[in-house]
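Example record

Each entry pairs one chain with its bound ligand, calcium ion.
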Amino acid sequence: MRDMAAKRFRSWRSAAPILTSLALSASACASSPGGSSGSTDGSDGASDATDGTTDAPDGTDDGVDNTDGSDDSDGSDGADGTPGEPIVDLRADVNRDGAIDLAGTSDDDGEDGWNAKAGAIFLANIDDDQERCDNTVDDVDLPKCHDATDEVVNGKLDLQDLARLHVVSWPDAPATSTVRVELDPPELARLFVHVRPDLEEGWEPYAKPISGTSTGSSASIATGIPLAIEALDIVRDASTWDGKVKVTIIIEDGAEELGRDSVVLRVAPVITYHHLSPAEVIYATKINGKDSEDFRNDLAAAIAQSDSKPKFKGVLYSDQWTQDYLETGYMSLPTADGIQHAIRVNYRSANVYDNGNNPLREAGRFAFDLRGVDSAAIQEYDTSSDPGMDSLNSFGNTETIPPYTHNGNEYLLGRLFRGHVSTFYPDPRFSKMLESQLVQPPVYVDTSWLIVGHVDESITFLPTAKAERGWTIGVSDAVMAKTMFEDMVDAGHGDVIVFDNQKWSSFPPKSAEISISKLLADQDVAEASAEAAVFIDEQVEVLLSETGVSRSELVPFAGLHEKQGGYSVAYQPGTVNGLLVDASVFAPPKTHGPIIEGTDPFVRQIDDALAEIGMAAHFVEDWDLYHRLLGEVHCGSNATRAIPSARWWETGR
Ligand SMILES: [Ca+2]
Ligand SMILES: [Ca+2]
Ligand SMILES: [Ca+2]
Ligand SMILES: [Ca+2]
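Structure tokens for the complex follow.
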């Protein structure tokens, strides 16, 4: 087995898309805390709320207060009909009910802050609603086209991606007055003015102050002015931009400032999907040949067996590690019907394979192929990142712990879960971007002992009604596998063949068949499995302590490990490394275990373990195209899932 090991190691090293029909990239699909600014937001909000209530009585005092930017009751002054008193009032959907309250004060409280209870939201308008972007340009140019890279509203659908603001009408505004709008910071958002509110398409980018009164149907201070805003990007680094933009209107009459008012908006973070959301679309790379066909046929059958029956789509790149080049997610805005308006977001992996204008793993371009109506793509990478750690940038190493509350901390949308230690970590720029989304603070574990180094090699998350939190943790279990084999020997089955009819390599052919007794005598497998048990238990300890899941709830997936080039990898097909379709079906790789009295004990082990939590397994053939190239079913698939009903702005992060 050892010379074969070296070969597989080299296959992994030579990696990806340079090869002909198969891209043998680092596959398999596998923590620094984020969320530090959450508490800052919280205290901001508290003080804002206080401002709101103390300002309210001020409004009735005298005209002086109207020059006070924080005067929230300006809008109601208009109703008083006090002639000549300026109404300087900018409104947004501060209470997140999907509408702007112009008459009452429901959108006034906390308008210049942001916390779990109040604060306006806007979207990075980086989808492509008119499908005008060219996806065939070089990597470095791909992000240069999206809806926010031009100066127009890109059609009706694009308008839905913009957050609305409104300059409250001041019917008595002097004809010589003007309203100026300032953004702080100015360069991260674009403001549009509905200059002709009578026309749906009458939007223009804000360019100059708008006059107090108008003839005809143009918006003016006297009539009130509808505004809309888009962010030009998501937050990439919260230490340089926290995602907030302050919009201020200043009404002036000649040189005299009549008043100003501000609203703070925060750009929606990108949220990744967790396993409590059923898959809506499942992807697998479509590669010529029977191996890929078998894999996709079995996956299609698993989908057909599921309750949610997601769509199944083939991906046309020569890189079978569909999990690894794409991570799916979304960002969302409140709407009036309570359903979030979402732009789906696909992250492209930060696998740097080259320099020049196309530095990234080619198949990651699929994120941009998916760009279109309400679908955006993001790439973020450092060309100087360590190639020896590049495998960690594959998204088998970016998973999501489902929602939970533990030790008083509530994670409404779960948390990111990644392999990341001080000596072995993914691209720091990409990690910073993920952490900067704040809503799903990552949990990091050690995957440095694995040759591929992904969290999905040892851990998965399984929905179950048996747990109050609605899910539990699936864990690869080498000790259980060893015990199972030993029991088979004790029962007189030592000569039964494992991996019947399977090969470690086809050219030259190298059989994988081995008797149970010989397998147990293999020192490499024994040592690697013992070591894996220890390292996986360390990962489990981190998860148990972070989530409050108890050891008795763990769902085991029996499987031995071996060493490749000095590092660990699944020796038996890694059954934990399967695709969760929905709460009804999990799709692990076919085990190719020994047949004892008509059944494979490794199939039965998983069937029984999943049945206990109310799930079924549907096994998928992955030996030739995935398992022997160091990956499994999860590594070869991907999913876009349903948008959770939980709303990110209520997380307080
Ligand atoms: Ca509102
Ligand atoms: Ca645009
Ligand atoms: Ca758009
Ligand atoms: Ca992933």
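The longest strand covers residues 256-267.
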